[in-house]
Amino acid sequence: MHIQEVQATPSTDIMQWGFSGQSTLTSTTGPKLKEPAVSSPGSGSVGAAAAAEKNGRGKIEIKRIENTTNRQVTFCKRRNGLLKKAYELSVLCDAEVALIVFSSRGRLYEYSNNSVKATIERYKKATSDNSSAAGTVAEVTIQHYKQESARLRQQITNLQNSNRTLVGDSIATMSHKDLKQLEARLDKGLVKIRARKNEVLSSELEYMQRREMELQNDNLYLRSRVDENERAQQTVNMMGVPSTSEYQQGFLPYDPIRSFLQFNIMQQQPQFYSQQEDRKDFNVGGR
């Protein structure tokens, strides 16, 4: 298996395609792939990490390597492993594989068991076929919704016609059998309607009876209150105290204590007047 190195614009993109097909390997000119020896100054940590990964010990944190030398060494190692995996995939699984890698310096590395351009064209055709299939699915979905809407419109029309026949319209074209079936349906409907009407009337009658009892109780309560007020008024009249109605007509609030005081004053006034008259007579006689 060989790889070809081509100078290209700086990029770090990686693309890979895989299709089932012939397993014949067609490689470009170039040196054979070999596992690079990791022995460069300042690369001890990279070598230890690589050894740990190879022996299955520990995990490497996936992030950008800041050291330029270490990053280049890791790129060479990973690139060779990726190309080896692509070759094994094409041979073991009889798949059509195309691999394109650009290094950080812009160098191109590619591999394919057939032809990179042919594989790319096949990829473009496959993606266009998928787009066409997606368009076909959309068309099928639209057609389904159109059929569903037509079915619903027909169902609405049938329901409207059925409602018109129930009220006696659009029955001129109905046969004797259809009219008989319609009559039976109407009879069943009338039975249900009458039963429901009787239920409603019974419930309303029960409600009115309950209201009548409540109103009678309220009437008895109000009558008892009126009788109590009348008895209280008679008692007040017998005592000679002005009634509450008189206070209300004179715009004075009714106060039992004040009424009692006024009643006592009215009883004492004649004696007061008699003393004044006696004193007046005494003075006249003295003259």
UniProtKB/TrEMBL annotation:
**Transmembrane segments in this chain: where?**
none
Q: Which domain of life is it from?
A: Eukaryota
A Gene Ontology biological process annotation?
floral organ development
Output the CDD domains linked to this UniProt entry.
MADS_MEF2_like
Q: Name one GO molecular function term.
A: DNA-binding transcription factor activity
Report biased composition (Low complexity) as residue ranges.
36-52
What are the boundaries of the region Disordered?
A: 25-52
Keywords of the record: Differentiation, DNA-binding, Flowering, Nucleus, Transcription, Transcription regulation
All copies of domain MADS-box, residue ranges: 55-115
- Protein localization: Nucleus
Q: Which Gene3D superfamilies match?
A: Transcription factor, MADS-box (3.40.1810.10)
Q: Name one Pfam family in it.
A: K-box
Name used for this protein in its record:
MADS-box transcription factor 58
